[in-house]
Amino acid sequence: MTALVPAVAGALVIGGLIALFLGLRPSPAVDRPSRLRRFRGLSRRTRLLAIAGVGSGAVALLVTGWVLALVVVPVAFVGLPVLLSSSAAAERIERLEAMEEWTRSLAGVLTVGVGLEQALVATLRSTPTAIAPEVTRLVARLRARWVTEDALRAFADELDDATGDLVAANLILGARRRGAGLASVLDGLAESVAADVRARRQVEADRAKPRATARWVTLISVGVLVVLATSGTYVEPYRSPFGQVILVALLSAYVATLVWMKRMALGRAMPRFLSTASSSPANGGAA
């Protein structure tokens, strides 16, 4: 035991010297946004929920005397809509359908015999709403004399989807080779995307059941916690400072379980394969 004490002390001294050396090394300045800028960067809905949560937490503190309410209530106001919200899969499927419709429309225009750039501009009027902003910016870049491949890579980055990469990659190959078979390739691609949409709809129908279960468990849990917080005798042991620390740990573990349940009902997006456009168009112009 006596030999262990000098060894531990020596290790602590060496560790302290290493930490001192690392702390004194110059490091690049990192521009971290202030808390006010972070708050302003949130969506308007999130900011309103946070403000309402702070006000409700203050009211709950006055009514129940729980200091913990100043933290729990604002977190609940901001976090519960996220836990209860439906998945974004429906929006992704809608965008896939829009890509399929736009690709089929583009293939139809190309059969007339016009060039790729003219065909892309011609599809602007009939573009589905889900991808209309991306196609509008693509057409604007082409009109601003961007290189077609650069404009298509930027288009793929804005779509931010593996299927969008597949569409853009075929268009990039068509822009390079200028062959006559691009329309048939796009027709086949549209059929593939349509099959993908049908498969994803079936998968989301199966995931809707555990998602609904997680939503109901969250609502019931919040209701039970509110009733217990106002019941008095049941939560009396948690009113002490140590009891509130224990309560925070238990609530954190419970919320982590609810988040885990929600994540189980979410799907993973397919990885993209087109790299971000690394160079701006040589002849200038920006959308």
Description:
The protein is mostly helical and 287 residues long. It has eleven helices and no strands. It has helices at residues 4-24, 35-41, 44-64, 69-84, 89-110, 116-122, 132-143, 148-159, 162-177, 182-231, 241-264. The longest helix has 50 residues, at 182-231. The model is unreliable at 29-33 and 277-287 (pLDDT under 50).
Strand and helix layout:
Layout (H helix, E strand, L loop, with lengths): L3 H21 L10 H7 L2 H21 L4 H16 L4 H22 L5 H7 L9 H12 L4 H12 L2 H16 L4 H50 L9 H24 L23
Helix pairs in contact: 3-4, 5-10, 7-8, 8-9, 9-10, 10-11
The string of secondary-structure elements, in order, is HHHHHHHHHHH
Radius of gyration based on Cα positions: 28 Å
Tell me the structural class: mainly alpha
Uncertain runs with pLDDT below 50, 5 residues or more? 29-33, 277-287
**Ends apart, CA distance between termini:** 73 Å
Q: Would you kindly provide a brief summary of this structure?
A:
With 287 residues, the chain is mostly helical. The protein contains eleven helices and no strands.
What key attributes describe this structure?
287 residues; mainly alpha; 11 helices
